[in-house]
């Protein structure tokens, strides 16, 4: 006969010396819920022959551990020491201080989102961004949606539904996270017409494909790969002329779509939105949280009649931006009016333009403290030169000189064990495993103290 008498009742436990502090911390309902579940498990264990008194003695610690685990946030800040500045899985661009302040204000205060303060009548939410985007890119008009995938979707659907869209076989891309161009095109209700081959597409391929059913020509920036060797692509200007002669619009999906010339930051030039429009694209699409350095968003800039048609598409309402991101974007775009101070104010550009020598100095400073934390665990820590990436499909083959710490240990699984331990820290540290070692690229580490604090926390 199982003996449950050693287990407290829920009420006894809630009012016990160890139960009351848990109630004060987590609330009565959460503690009672966890208690019921834990007591039920213990009754099953006792039925199976377990020792009731021993189980009851474990109850306070077990419960407090469970409640702590339940109350821990899932979406937690981490230290991005992967060397990838725009890391999609770690949330891409960090926002500028002014953008954060604007977002917070939008969260806590009513604002003139769709309200025209001059007339007292209705306004458009896009109006807060349209003017700056147009003046920065030379576009006649612009609109903004949830992300660049949505921008491509609504542009294709508006201009090409039920019609053919011509794309080079060399540009039928997949971007991580299930953005595959053929699938997006199918969902947009357009018919994909592939031209050329994987490595070579010629003007005559496009010209031969234009017909009465053509809705538009789509050009896609090869964000996350390069085709090298025996290759040919049709230059944007030439493609624009072909589209114009065929009487169809040209949509250029730039992806990262920088608003400024990145060679100022010592990076390879990525095509800017202004250049793509000047080359004759009728519409250009690009992300808000890649090189632009703002929150997640997708911009469409270009011909006013086409933008007006996109804004009339019922999908626009389903894909529109919320006030918090509009506020953050307005503040982010405002920084572009002062190009001289942009790199200092915009975290993405600041991180991308950090000189390798400065990062190497930081690594040398951190080495003794990181070694003090990890050497007792059996690891060896050294300095290393490494290469950072821009990430998010921007400048895929262009890497940046950087520096960091290289950590090795006994056994072939040492890097994996260390990576798991680092992920389990109060502020998880995300590095990358390369060549049997764990590399911590310090390009994106703003504060040395943050790393030391999380490594040495109990
Ligand atoms: C990143 C990218 C997209 C998708 O943009 P999101 O903002 O992630 O939705 C689409 N096209 C290209 C060329 C890209 O690089």
CATH-derived architecture of the largest domain: 3-Layer(aba) Sandwich
CATH fold call of the largest domain = Aspartate Aminotransferase, domain 2
Largest sheet: 7 strands, mixed
| Strand line-up across the major sheet | 2-10-9-8-7-3-6
- The Rg value, from CA coordinates, equals 28 Å
Enumerate the distinct ligands: pyridoxal-5'-phosphate
Whole-number mean pLDDT: 93
Number of strands: 15
From the N-terminal CA to the C-terminal CA, the straight-line distance is 44 Å
Q: What is the CATH level 1 assignment of the largest domain? A: Alpha Beta
Task: Classify the helix fraction into a percent range.
Answer: 40-55%
- What is the helix tally? 19
Mind telling me the CATH superfamily name of the largest domain?
Type I PLP-dependent aspartate aminotransferase-like (Major domain)
Class derived from helix and strand content: alpha/beta
Please tell me the total number of domains. Answer: 3
Strand content: 15-25%
Shape: globular
Q: Low-confidence segments, ≥5 residues, pLDDT <50?
A: none
């Amino acid at each position: 006969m199982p003996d449950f008498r050693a287990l407290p009742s829920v009420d006894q436990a809630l009012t016990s010396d160890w139960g009351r502090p848990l109630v004060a911390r987590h609330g009565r309902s959460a503690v009672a819920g966890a208690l019921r579940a834990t007591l039920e498990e213990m009754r099953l264990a006792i039925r199976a022959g377990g020792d009731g008194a021993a189980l009851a003695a474990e109850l306070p610690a077990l419960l407090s551990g469970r409640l702590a685990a339940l109350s821990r946030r899932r979406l937690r800040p981490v230290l991005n020491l992967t060397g990838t500045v725009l890391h999609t899985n770690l949330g891409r661009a960090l926002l500028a201080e002014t953008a954060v302040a604007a977002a917070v204000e939008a969260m806590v205060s009513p604002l003139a989102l769709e309200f025209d303060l001059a007339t007292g009548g209705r306004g458009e939410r896009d109006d807060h961004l349209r003017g700056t985007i147009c003046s920065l890119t030379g576009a006649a008009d612009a609109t903004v949606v949830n992300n660049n995938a949505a921008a491509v979707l609504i542009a294709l659907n508006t201009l090409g539904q039920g019609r053919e869209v011509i794309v080079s076989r060399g540009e039928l891309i997949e971007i991580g996270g299930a953005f595959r161009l053929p699938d997006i095109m199918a969902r947009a209700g357009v018919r994909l017409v592939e031209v050329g081959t994987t490595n070579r597409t010629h003007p005559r391929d496009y010209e031969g494909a234009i017909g009465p059913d053509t809705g538009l020509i789509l050009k896609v920036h090869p964000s996350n790969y390069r085709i090298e060797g025996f290759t040919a692509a049709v230059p944007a200007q030439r493609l624009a002329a072909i589209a114009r002669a065929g009487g169809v619009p040209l949509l250029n999906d730039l992806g990262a779509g920088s608003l400024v010339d990145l060679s100022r930051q010592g990076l390879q030039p990525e095509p800017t939105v202004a250049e793509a429009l000047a080359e004759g694209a009728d519409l250009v699409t690009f992300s808000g949280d890649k090189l632009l350095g703002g929150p997640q968003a997708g911009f469409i800039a270009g011909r006013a009649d086409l933008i007006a048609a996109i804004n009339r598409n019922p999908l626009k309402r389903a894909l529109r931006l919320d006030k918090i991101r509009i506020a953050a974007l307005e503040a982010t775009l405002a920084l572009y009016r002062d190009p001289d101070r942009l790199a200092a104010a915009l975290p993405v550009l600041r991180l991308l333009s950090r000189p390798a020598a400065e990062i190497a100095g930081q690594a040398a400073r951190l080495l003794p403290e990181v070694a003090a934390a990890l050497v007792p665990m059996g690891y060896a820590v050294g300095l290393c030169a490494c290469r950072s990436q821009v990430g998010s499909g921007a400048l895929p083959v262009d890497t940046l000189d950087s520096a960091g710490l290289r950590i090795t240990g006994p056994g072939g699984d040492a890097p994996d064990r260390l990576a798991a331990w680092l992920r389990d820290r109060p502020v998880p540290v995300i590095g990358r495993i390369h060549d049997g070692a764990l590399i911590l690229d310090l390009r994106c580490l703003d504060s040395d103290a943050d790393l030391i604090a999380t490594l040495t926390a109990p």
